[in-house]
Design goal:
Layout: H1 2-15, E1 18-28, E2 33-40, E3 43-51, E4 56-59, E5 66-67, H2 74-86, E6 92-104, H3 107-131, E7 136-144, E8 148-161, H4 162-190
Parallel strand pairs: 6-7
Antiparallel strand pairs: 1-2, 1-8, 2-3, 3-4, 4-5, 6-8
């Protein structure tokens, strides 16, 4: 009896542990470079390098490049919706740091562009503060009047519990099974 209680209490403690993910995003529009690095604690999990002109990406410095598809199939669209509803909506944002350099080589248009981006960041930050009142947000913008440059450097720290991870996997598998059954039914009806 005591061993069962100890096992269950340890099991619930493990399920409630928080996974700490750090996401680093570097985006430079004029050098055609976007790099996304995801860490679990301090261990690098994945590095994604995106070529903006060719719409290609590489994962973990591999030689193989994959192409982005601008038109999504129904399966890809369903997969993206599942990721959003089961994982992205359950993330707990703790710390966000945004460094932005913007310049259009014209003082007037640089000011307009930086003001527009400031308004956009303000709207997103108010939504994030509504979700998490303990969020630490650092935003720095440098407006360059004599250069043509757009560089974004962003660090995001999010928490995700092991329970949420297991729950997301189970729900995704269950919904994927239902989706596959519905597709088979619709194909039979179409024939």
């Amino acid at each position: 009896m005591n061993s069962t209680i100890i096992f269950l209490s340890l099991f619930f403690i493990i399920l409630s542990l928080m996974l700490v993910f750090k996401i680093k995003i570097y985006f430079n529009l004029f050098s055609n470079k976007c790099v996304v690095i995801i860490y679990l604690y301090k261990l690098r999990i994945i590095t994604i390098e995106i070529n903006l002109i060719g719409l290609t990406f590489k994962i973990n410095n591999s030689k193989k490049t994959n192409k982005f598809s601008l038109i999504l199939t129904k399966e890809q669209e369903y997969f993206i919706k599942q990721i959003k509803s089961t994982i992205l909506d359950k993330l707990y944002y703790d710390d966000i740091s945004i460094n932005l350099k913007i310049g259009t080589s014209n003082a007037f248009s640089s000011s307009i562009a930086s003001g527009t981006i400031d308004t956009f960041v303000s709207m997103i930050s108010s939504k994030l503060f509504y979700i998490n009142k303990d969020l630490d947000l650092y935003y720095e913008r440098n407006c360059l009047f004599d250069k043509l440059e757009l560089v974004l450097d962003m660090d995001i720290k999010v928490y995700f519990t092991i329970f949420d991870l297991i729950f997301a996997i189970i729900i995704s598998l269950y919904k994927r099974g239902n989706y596959a059954k519905q597709r088979k039914r619709s194909r039979r009806i179409a024939k």
